[in-house]
Design brief:
By secondary structure, this protein is mainly α. It has one domain. It contains two helices and two strands. It has a two-stranded antiparallel sheet with strand order 1-2. Strand 1 and strand 2 form a beta hairpin. Helix 1 crosses helix 2.
Amino acid sequence: MADNNKEKIWIELADTSTPIALSINPGEEENYRKAEELVNTLWSKWMNRFNGTSRDVLARVAFQFARLYLEAYGENRQVNEFLTDLDNQLDTLLGEEA
């Protein structure tokens, strides 16, 4: 089933031979373009730094972003747990005073 609300964009990553077509929700293009820029910037920097093939460097870039994602995910989980505990404590305090 086609989603008529989607927009189609093309991104170019590293030295891939063809652009990648994506269907995205309206208003999300800026984030996709920023992600494209971040990947290409890191890839270009590391191509100059490391001796290896484009594929090797792109694998390093993918690993770096996956690692950063997992770190952010863990930090967000800790914040959510803290906020849940705080909410429960506030409910308890308000329930005792009522």
